[in-house]
Each structure stands twice: as structure tokens, then as C-alpha cells.
Design goal:
- With about 210 residues, the chain is of the alpha/beta class.
- The protein is about 50% helix and about 10% strand.
- The strands form 2 sheets. It has a 4-stranded mixed beta sheet with strand order 1-2-6-3. The chain has a two-stranded antiparallel sheet with strand order 4-5.
- Helix 1 links the parallel strand 1 and strand 2.
- Helix 5 packs across helix 7 and helix 8 packs antiparallel against helix 9.
- The radius of gyration is 17 Å and the shape is globular.
Length: about 210
């Protein structure tokens, strides 16, 4: 079950229908209790982050200083929810349909990954801590590349691939040198490619943590 919560009525009116379309395109595991929170501010995220997926929210809530208006949705009468998807104001407040769709679809893919293989998902965090000695860019992490492919596929299903590629080109040509490499990579990937994020993760774990042969 996925529950959506919007910080204000304006955000709900603006994005609720499109949010439902994204949820329809994503294969959300029905056994999990999830809240998607859409904010008009950007808290608990880095400036470059377009969204945040927080699994095992009962364990994580004390480590992340969520404001009260978010924290009140992290539990219900049955206890803590399984996970939180947080979409910050950066992705919600701009009149940017592409950014909203891709941010939400990206985090929903992380939910699907975690539900399918929680240990492998967690291993990506171990690999990330070794960057840049192992991977030069965050989006080279298997869970990130897979989520980028999935978000592009969802966006293409909703608006068409030509429109999605147009969104990416707009950002590439915006003059923002910090985000340009990300969008160039996003532009280059096919939304229909098969990517084995589990196999790629296991390969990197073996490479990084296996004991050297004597």
C-alpha cells in the first residue's frame, strides 16, 4: 500500500493526477506500507538530490531529523511504516513535469529494488562509501543506474520518449555545468535496456571485499 501526502493543497492540486500515473506504471509490491511525501521545502536532502528513499523507517527515523510535518506520517496504529519516499520542493515546486515524474519514478524504483533484494540494495551503500576509488560517479552504482533506466521508461510511457529526451536536452543546454554530466548520461541510456543490477552489485562486492588470493 502506498499512501501519498502533500504538504499543501496547492501541491496536491498540481501533482496528484500525475503522481497516480507514475504509481500505475511502477510495479509496487503490495505487501509493503509506504508513504510518499511531497514537500514545498527541501529538508534532509543534499542540494543535488531530487528525492530520497528511506527503507526500514522505524530504524531510520531517529537518525534523520525529519520535521514534525513529515514525521507524523511515518507511523500509524500498526506501528512504523516500512519505508518513506520523500520528494523535496526542488522537484515539486518548479513548473517542471519532467523533473517531478523522473524524481518520483526513480525513488519508487529504489523501493522495488529494496523489496526484491534488501541485502543487495544495502550492499550498494557499502560500495558507495568506497567512491571514488571504485566508481567515479554516483550514477554508476548499480541501484542508481537501474533506477535511472526505470525512471526514463516510466516517463516515456507517460509522455513519450521524444518528450523525455527533450526534457534531458533542456537541462544539458541550461548551462549548469554541475548537473550536465548527469543529464548527458541520462540522455544516453535506453529506457528499454535490460540491466542486471543484482549481478552488477555482486560483481562489485566481490571485487571490493573478497580476500586476495594467496
Amino acid at each position: 500500500m502506498v499512501r501519498t501526502e502533500f504538504k499543501c493543497a496547492e501541491l496536491k492540486a498540481k501533482w496528484e493526477h500525475l503522481c497516480s500515473r507514475v504509481l500505475e506504471e511502477c510495479a509496487i509490491p503490495p505487501a509493503y506500507r509506504i508513504v510518499c511525501y511531497f514537500d514545498d521545502e527541501s529538508v534532509c536532502v543534499e542540494p543535488s538530490e531530487r528525492g530520497l528513499f528511506v527503507p526500514d523507517i522505524g530504524k531510520s527515523a531517529n537518525r534523520v531529523c525529519w520535521p514534525v510535518y513529515v514525521k507524523k506520517y511515518l507511523s500509524d496504529d500498526a506501528g512504523f511504516l516500512d519505508a518513506l519516499i520523500y520528494v523535496p520542493g526542488y522537484a515539486c515546486c518548479a513548473d517542471d513535469e519532467g523533473l517531478f515524474v523522473m524524481a518520483l519514478a526513480h525513488e519508487l524504483r529504489h523501493l522495488v529494488q529494496w523489496a526484491a533484494a534488501a541485502e543487495v540494495f544495502s550492499n550498494n551503500k557499502k560500495i558507495e562509501r568506497l567512491r571514488p576509488t571504485v566508481l567515479a560517479r554516483k550514477w554508476d552504482l548499480p541501484i542508481e543506474r537501474d533506477a535511472m533506466i526505470s525512471s526514463k521508461r516510466v516517463a516515456a510511457a507517460i509522455r513519450g520518449l521524444d518528450v523525455v529526451n527533450g526534457w534531458a536536452w533542456t537541462r544539458i543546454n541550461s548551462g549548469d555545468s554541475q548537473s550536465m554530466p548527469f543529464w548527458e548520461f541520462f540522455q544516453s541510456i535506453s529506457p528499454y535496456e535490460h540491466y542486471d543490477w543484482v549481478g552488477e552489485t555482486n560483481f562489485l562486492i566481490d571485487r571490493c571485499f573478497s580476500s586476495p588470493r594467496q
